[in-house]
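Sequence design from tokenized structure. All designs in this work follow the same two-part layout: the structure record, then the generated sequence. An example of the structure record is given first.
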């Protein structure tokens, strides 16, 4: 006796078909593009007792694929637009991101990924290219701020030296002006003419002696 098979590649489409009824059993893959098979099974069980056959052998394949994606991401092999996070991991592994949370089948792999990432970060490594660039930019900004602060200090010191030099020049200018004024005052003093001194032979004239002189 044959069976008629209705196929659906997406969980959402399959759930809509199930709501219409008329199915005797459900063969469900664990990995689907939009939801994992366990979530689909829970939703089906909440509405009916339809027999469900789970294809679980693919879990091992996906686990290997996820771990390989983890290795690539943690060594910095991230495609453009990706980051070192669960969203990128799900995209790289080809699984739905919700499968990494709660009681989903790959929640333990999310914990493993985050633990390895934390270990790398504690060791000073940053596999995420965006985060690494941000760290480099922050370091560059810090260096520039330190240089700016040092330049400001140097400018302040040079300004003090300039002020001291100008003060010294002003004091020297005042001293020079005072000395010039003193010299000008001395040059204005009137000198008395010296008494003329005759130079040449001197003739002695004998004057008549007064009475009684010899």
């Amino acid at each position: 006796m044959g069976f008629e098979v209705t196929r659906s590649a997406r969980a959402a489409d399959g759930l809509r078909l199930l709501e219409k009824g008329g199915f005797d059993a459900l063969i469900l893959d664990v990995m689907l593009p939009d939801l994992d098979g366990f979530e689909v099974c829970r939703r089906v069980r909440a509405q009916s007792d339809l027999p469900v056959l789970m294809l679980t052998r693919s879990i091992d394949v996906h686990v290997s694929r996820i771990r390989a994606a983890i290795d690539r991401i943690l060594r910095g092999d991230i495609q453009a637009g990706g980051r070192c996070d669960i969203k990128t991991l799900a995209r790289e592994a080809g699984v739905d991101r919700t499968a990494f949370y709660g009681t989903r089948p790959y929640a333990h792999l999310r914990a493993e990924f985050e633990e390895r990432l934390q270990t790398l970060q504690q060791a000073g490594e940053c596999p995420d290219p965006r985060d690494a660039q941000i760290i480099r930019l922050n370091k560059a900004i810090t260096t520039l701020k330190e240089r700016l602060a040092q330049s400001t200090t140097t400018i302040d010191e040079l300004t003090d030296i300039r002020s001291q030099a100008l003060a010294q020049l002003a004091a020297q200018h005042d001293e020079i002006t005072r000395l010039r004024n003193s010299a000008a005052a001395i040059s204005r003093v009137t000198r008395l003419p010296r008494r003329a001194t005759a130079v040449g032979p001197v003739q002695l004239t004998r004057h008549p002696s007064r009475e009684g002189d010899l």
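Helices lie at 11-20, 37-45, 58-74, 86-93, 107-122, 129-187. We note this feature because it recurs in several other targets discussed in the main text.
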